[in-house]
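Appendix B. One record, verbatim.
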Amino acid sequence: MSLLSHYEILGIDSDATESDIKRAYKEKLLAIHPDKIKNNAKAKANTNENITGNENKSPISVNHIQDAYKILVDSKSRQQYDKELEEQFKKMGFFNNGDGVEEISLDEFEWNEKNEYRLNCPRCKQVDGFEFDEDALEEYGYQKRDSCEYLMMIQCNSCSLWIKVAYEMV
């Protein structure tokens, strides 16, 4: 499985419409088409960034783009894919909902020299029971409705306690 989700491959949000998916699919294919790149210096210069969103990641192939499109454009396969993605997030300790779960401000976490946020678990008292980095906030966080605040669900690495981390993007 790719390190990038199908949504990331196409450069779209998980709530993208069918027309958004089709548009992104066409744009991504054109961005890596050899004939289109050869004649367009600007497209060639931006190819890696446009395709991966990050120059450090390996380039995405036509097959990756086609697979992502095939899954996301079909509503049944997209639902199944979203369920599988959700399960992966759960196994990793990140989950994007949680009504009724305690909400803790990011300000209550300690920042260490490894660029990680850490908090002792209030239930089991595990030292650094909750730990994550800024990449996790960007990747797994979601914006509250009608608010500039974001939330991310995380589980203690020692017990079953889940919390919502509340923060604002700068």
